[in-house]
Design goal:
The structure is a homodimer. Chain A is mainly beta. The first copy, chain A, has 2 domains: about 210 residues, Oxidoreductase, molybdopterin-binding domain (Sulfite Oxidase, Chain A, domain 2, Alpha-Beta Complex); about 110 residues, Immunoglobulin-like (Sandwich). Helices cover about 5% and strands about 40% of the residues of chain A. In chain A, the strands form 6 sheets. Chain A has a 5-stranded mixed sheet. In chain A, strands 6, 7, 10, 11 and 12 form a 5-stranded antiparallel sheet that branches. In chain A, strand 10 and strand 11 form a beta hairpin. Chains A and B meet through strand 1 and strand 17 of A and strand 1, strand 17 and strand 24 of B.
Amino acid sequence: MATPNNSFIRPYLITRSLQPENQETPIKFMNTPNITDRLFFRRNHFSYPTLQFSHYWLPVHGLVQNPTLFTLQDLLRFPSKTFKVVLECAGNQRSKFEPKVFGEQWEKGAISQGEWKGVPLKTLLTHVGMKDGAKEIVFEAYDYGSRTDSDQIHTFARSLPLEKALHPDTIIAYEYNQKPIPFKHGYPLRLIVPQWYAMASVKWIKQIKVIDSKFTGPFQTTDYVYYPEQEGDKNSFPVTAIHVNSIIQKPLDMDTLNTGIHSIHGIAWTGKGQISKVEISTDNGSTWTLAKLGHYSGDRYGWIPWSYQWTVTKKGEYTIMSKATDSENRTQPEAAFWNRKGYGYNAIDIIKVRVE
Amino acid sequence: MATPNNSFIRPYLITRSLQPENQETPIKFMNTPNITDRLFFRRNHFSYPTLQFSHYWLPVHGLVQNPTLFTLQDLLRFPSKTFKVVLECAGNQRSKFEPKVFGEQWEKGAISQGEWKGVPLKTLLTHVGMKDGAKEIVFEAYDYGSRTDSDQIHTFARSLPLEKALHPDTIIAYEYNQKPIPFKHGYPLRLIVPQWYAMASVKWIKQIKVIDSKFTGPFQTTDYVYYPEQEGDKNSFPVTAIHVNSIIQKPLDMDTLNTGIHSIHGIAWTGKGQISKVEISTDNGSTWTLAKLGHYSGDRYGWIPWSYQWTVTKKGEYTIMSKATDSENRTQPEAAFWNRKGYGYNAIDIIKVRVE
């Protein structure tokens, strides 16, 4: 009789809900720059769409000179761009807000990254020729369903302002990690908006429309809006760029360690510029030391690994923190900006360990 | 092009650690009486053992008349018993203790159940003939490794007092759900002690020894002991029978629902007697109503499903609680009995939902 070795131990997605499917990446156990389909977090508002077509057409129309139906072959003929991009759900770490907020109780794993390849949206928009007065670009997806706050059926749809739509790195992606995009992540075409929270990166694109007004779908003006007040819309503003952030992957919270040397490590990321430093405290925030930054793999739209070698000789309990700062001089705050729907959590990460 | 339908959405184990492997069952999404190997929680103190033998022998020796090496064939020839048994890790829900305690931060899923088949331990002990003065039966497992609180290598080993060892339903199991026990859950032989926390149900049994004293291995006298004090051993006592308990599986905590009729459902279980009632409160504990109990499938060592039809017409926030009582008149407390290592959590289960 033989037994399997320990290499058959692996982490899995963490289920938040199944209808629709919302599962997070076991991010604490990930040390790869490309998250595979199997472990890429899944965030859906509705059931998966049923896509039944023998030929896929992407309509780009609205306020344009030449409304066009692009085929996949058309898209493949344009010059492509490839980026390693962090996709982070705006609700990532929602479970950590105090007071608690309603919605999917994501812990730290509504985030993944990998290599997205596609054609710049700007290329398509140039091709069809936007007319004067164009203000926003609307991306309608194939998924649809009901919402608890409405009696109607809604399609997932989001818009981008012209400036972001025309950014040369905003792409209509057709590949993820050198393969067609996995179905659950937007096959065949997904908008990829680097540096914005992932609600902007619309999956299963059905059509792209240029409009001369502000788009007001519920996923634009009800959800994905920061509401700083417990009630009402006062001072609300839209969710856009990812906040500067970091998490500790190891040790695990409430772990017990021996005295000696331990590697504290994790990842850091931002939606503006790039990470300039990560600081670590092992004394509950009294003193801070620079962690060693790893390397961005390629561009600056991914996360960066960091590590810190901790020598601990005294037994006892320790509170360990990580704090990232980006090139725009944004730093993780002690407490995240509380908002009613729980978006953009980015407080300094904290764990506790006992050394014995 | 065709797309997969929604039946390919499934939950996964929730990873707590990989070295050793500790992963919990996505219990909130389970409504089956037999948890499969794939989703059965995994709780290990060490790496998986390497079992290399062409023939498996189970030694039963120590203070006995006829020390015997049993083969698997020997065991299969004895009359067998089959039970549906809840196995719950003593540390299940440890993450909910306040103040927080060190150790694996289990949520609600360090619990599973299924059908275990084997030969009563009593049969084997009768076969070998215990001598006078026999006091405890020690079960040594094949897994071993280091502990943070010791410089030595330890083998996982636990003992049972005679009374529990001779209980006719304490079995040496060789099948789980009509198949050989899955390797990660104790293949080829696992002790199954119904109604006790699962540390008692020793996996990968290497040998059984009858002794005339109290066994003092670290998994008997250091771990799996209730320490009520923050420091020191005062008033400590061993972890044995499972506390009366229940959890709400649906709705999920911090869910948003519509007005209307909703099914609140979950499971309840106990280590003494059987569940006699489950009460539900939808007003933060002010009033309680009986839930509808399902049926035990077979014996009373499993969990029992319960449900409650909730009609809600008024919008707002609701705190929903479930509280089980067993036939020994034990009821879930408002706060669990705090103990330093975080065992036996069984407070009334609480979730919050918003109705809109």
